[in-house]
Design goal:
The complex is a heterodimer. By secondary structure, chain A is α/β, with parallel strands linked by helices. Helices cover about 40% and strands about 10% of the residues of chain A. Chain B is mainly alpha-helical. Chain B has a domain of about 40 residues: Histone, subunit A (Orthogonal Bundle). Chain B is flat, with a radius of gyration of 23 Å. Classes of the chains: A alpha/beta, B mainly alpha. Chains A and B meet through α10, α11, α12, α13 and α14 of A and α1, α2 and α3 of B.
Chain lengths: ~475, ~100
């Protein structure tokens, strides 16, 4: 059931939050063992939160815009007193002493946290296979990956375990799993949503955003979590945008460019769905044509130097001193080295090594410095393009969901999964992946709308138009 | 492809405070070289005079009013530490034995 409908029914007293929660916990009981979307299911906490929402409704108090809506949280969002693992052994058992700002805002809005979802360790990956606790499986075909790194959140929404979920998107980690699981996923403008309490991966790229089964649900969720937070120095000092109110405004007269370089990067069946989406937007009144944004082809290389450099610095904090795992050694240096060797998985180690190399004396300017300058070129290319276009349209991922194990042997092959999503992170721009039919293998395909900074309202108008054109909603597998 | 030696990988691992096995030295040498080879497209770009971008939106000097506000309790924070003693984090010795 959609979040918008649940909140309306619970607020009106037509349905209890407790009933909603029990329905979702039943869905979890049915398929969680098979899918492993969660690192932790919070059944008792969810029931008591639901009872509190029902008490407020009964007492005539405002229970909030997300009253009774079950949400799943990626397990790199801090939850006070509740384990937050980042799917890493180095944080196993850690209980944060505070809630992330987005978690506080969801709770205040009446949402019910039903669990913490699996991810690639520290959000580093594109398949959720890099979790220390085992992979998540795609609800549409359990032999396939759900995408990543927020694969657990995407799978939880696709399987009906939660009505909404939050993830984090550093290079595509919300949009790519949303596409592979057939749900809506939003990467907001950098700074629109607070990062306070999001465990840092690459601080100049990370952004929190929602997963949902409809564009309207995603809009409602983003309205709740967006807006200035003094606890995040990169938070943009302005209020949350109004999105739900513009969803039916249509795309008449909008100029939308289809990004040639990103279309060239994808499989034919994915490209065919993109062409269908372009035609649908044109039929709805938008002016759609192809556009070249050449520097987007440099995104992948720039990203894997910048993100790893930032990660190598951010992950220096896992040293066995203040929280998490410690492996003892004769002196503090030996303790550091042994703790980090035992606590980090292979992909995290690889990225720490790559980032440390890119930042090291003699290579800093050639790798990290050059990537930062190319980042400027990519932003300039977008700026030039947005002088003539309101929005851009692109594929979300090069392929549909791939088989577990098929890309784990070669890191570079896995990295290519993010080629269409990375440019938005480098530019700090918003983007949304909308399910748009299925590929030749019958699995979901997502298409991506990109907007300039703070262009969420226009982006959501077009996303809603796309959704209407196909009447596709990310239904749980088997429902249609 | 830019070759990366085992010695270079070992040096980077020391900088990263990460113990690595012999097997990892070989594996990382190959994998790092492959990713850096892919980054050759960056090296080919003329970026003379192009300023670097560190953050998408430069927000400088973000300050708050200098007022006392609640912060995390010491005991609550130390409760999560692998080892604590007398209100402090406890760590192995930092300096070697005096000669």
């Amino acid at each position: 059931m959609d979040a918008v409908d649940i909140a309306r029914a619970v607020r009106a007293g037509a349905r209890t939050a407790r009933d909603v929660v029990e329905e979702h916990l039943t869905a979890v009981a049915g398929r969680e063992e098979e899918l492993h979307a969660f690192n932790l299911v919070l059944a008792d906490e969810a029931r008591s939160q639901a009872d509190e929402v029902d008490r407020r409704v009964a007492a005539g108090e405002d229970p909030g815009p997300l009253a009774g809506v079950p949400v799943a949280l990626k397990d790199n969002l801090c939850t006070r007193g509740i384990p937050t693992t980042c799917s890493s052994l180095i944080l196993e058992g850690w209980r944060p002493p505070y809630d992330a700002t987005v978690v506080t805002r969801l709770r205040q809005a009446g949402a019910i946290v039903v669990g913490k979802t699996n991810l690639d360790e520290f959000a580093m990956g594109s398949s959720t296979e890099n979790s220390a606790f085992g992979p998540t499986r795609n609800p549409h075909d359990p032999s396939r990956v759900p995408g990543g790194s927020s694969g657990g959140s995407a799978a939880a929404v696709a399987a009906g375990f939660a009505s909404l979920a939050l993830g984090s998107d550093t290079g595509g980690s919300i949009r790519q799993p949303a596409a592979l699981c057939g749900v809506v996923g939003v990467k907001p403008t950098y700074g629109l949503v607070s990062r306070y309490g999001l465990v840092a991966f690459a601080s100049s790229l990370d952004q929190v955003g929602p997963f949902a089964t409809s564009v309207a649900d995603a809009a409602l969720a983003l309205e709740v979590i967006a807006g200035h937070d003094p606890a995040d120095s990169t938070s943009i000092p302005r209020p949350a945008p109004s999105l739900s109110a513009v969803l039916d405004h249509g795309v008449e007269g909008l100029r939308i460019g289809v990004v040639r370089e990103l279309v060239d990067a994808v499989d034919a069946d994915v490209g065919a769905r993109l062409s269908a989406a372009a035609a649908a937007l044109e039929a709805a009144g938008a002016k759609v044509d192809e556009v070249s944004v050449p520097a987007t082809t440099l995104g992948l290389s720039a990203y894997y130097l910048l993100a790893t450099a930032e990660a190598s610095s951010n992950l220096a904090r896992y040293d066995g001193v203040r929280y998490g795992l410690r492996v003892d050694g004769d002196d503090v240096g030996a303790m550091y080295g042994a703790t980090r060797a035992a606590g980090f998985g292979a992909e995290v180690k690889r990225r720490i090594m790559l980032g440390t190399y890119a930042l090291s004396a003699g290579y800093y300017d050639a790798y990290y410095g050059q990537a930062q300058r190319v980042r400027t070129l990519i932003i300039r290319d977008f700026d030039v393009t947005y002088a003539s276009y309101d929005l851009l349209l692109a594929p979300t991922a090069p392929t549909t969901a791939f088989a577990l194990g098929s890309k784990t042997a070669d890191p570079l092959t896995m990295y290519l999964s993010d080629v269409c999503t990375i440019p938005s992170n480098l530019a700090g721009h918003p983007a949304v992946s909308v399910p748009y039919g299925r590929g030749d293998d019958g699995l979901p395909v997502g298409v991506q709308l990109l907007a300039p900074a703070l262009g969420e309202a226009t982006m959501f108008r077009a996303a809603a138009a796309l959704e209407r054109s196909l009447a596709v909603r990310g239904q749980a597998p088997g429902e249609r | 492809m830019v070759p990366i030696s085992r010695d270079e990988v070992a040096h980077v691992a020391r900088l990263a405070r990460l113990d690595v096995t012999d097997d990892e030295l070989d594996r990382f040498a190959g994998q790092l070289a492959a990713v850096l080879a892919h980054a050759a497209d960056l090296a080919a770009m003329d970026t003379a005079g192009v300023p670097p971008t560190g953050r998408p939106y430069p927000l400088v000097n973000v300050l708050r009013d200098d007022v006392v506000a609640p912060s995390l309790g010491r005991d609550e924070v130390l409760a999560m530490a692998p080892a604590a003693e007398a209100g402090r984090f406890r760590v192995p010795r930092i300096l070697g034995e005096a000669p």
